[in-house]
Design a protein that fits this description.
heterodimer; A: mainly beta; six-stranded mixed sheet; four-stranded antiparallel sheet; 12 strands; B: mainly beta; seven-stranded mixed sheet; about 0% helix
């Protein structure tokens, strides 16, 4: 089975600063990787996904992530954050024929 | 589009009571699943279904039952509620071909408190 580790439970950052949220995964087979965002009292919304092809994936709201197979990582980045990016972010992994597994989440707090 | 609809949004139960959380999707997705979300633990898979009449257990199935009589509906039943089942529950659906996994769509969640 696949598993995901999000390396930071909380990331505080000032507005307009860059941010990186780290995600490592483990799997014995090829994987699909996802980042979801959860705003307060809401469900999860897909930010971006890696299924195959280019290792740099661009998503909504200016976020991007890079798939690194050798380091088994899928870190999420944004060059300049806004107050509205304050939310919880979840990394998830799945594989063909397998269900999706989530990390514990990273709470991003953007301060003015 | 309605997407994935969960009811109720909030629920308080007494220990030992039973209840059913409802989940319906209108996207004709084969795959549906239930997760629980607890602080510091992310989302953990309770049960899932790959189609009508087919269900299977996830990571934390104890104390929960599911059934899938139609493609659209996937109710989650708590048989005898316990305080440890206090959590936020999410239903999700997606296409689930054997060769790839696509985006999962989530409901708004049900916040359950067991006292």
């Amino acid at each position: 089975a696949q598993s995901v580790t999000q390396l930071d439970s909380q990331v505080p950052v000032f507005e307009e600063a860059p941010v990186e949220l780290r995600c490592n995964y483990s799997s014995s087979v090829s994987v699909y990787l996802f980042w979801y965002v959860q705003y307060p009292n809401q469900g999860l919304q897909l930010l971006l996904k890696y299924l195959s092809g280019s290792t740099l994936v661009k998503g909504i709201n200016g976020f991007e992530a890079e798939f690194n197979k050798s380091q088994t990582s899928f870190h999420l980045r944004k060059p300049s954050v806004h107050i509205s990016d304050t939310a919880e972010y979840f990394c998830a992994v799945s594989a063909p024929g397998n269900d999706m597994r989530f990390g514990a989440g990273t709470r991003l707090t953007v301060k003015p | 589009n309605a997407g994935v609809t969960q009811t109720p949004k909030f629920q308080v139960l007494k220990t030992g009571q039973s209840m059913t959380l409802q989940c319906a999707q209108d996207m004709n997705h084969e795959y549906m699943s239930w997760y629980r979300q607890d602080p510091g633990m992310g989302l953990r898979l309770i049960h899932y279904s790959v189609g009508a009449g087919i269900t299977d257990q996830g990571e934390v199935p104890n104390g929960y039952n599911v059934s899938r009589s139609t493609t659209e509906d996937f109710p989650l039943r708590l048989l005898s509620a316990a305080p440890s089942q206090t959590s936020v529950y999410f239903c999700a659906s997606s296409y689930f071909p054997t060769s790839r996994h696509t985006e999962a769509f989530f409901g708004q969640g049900t916040r359950l408190t067991v006292v």
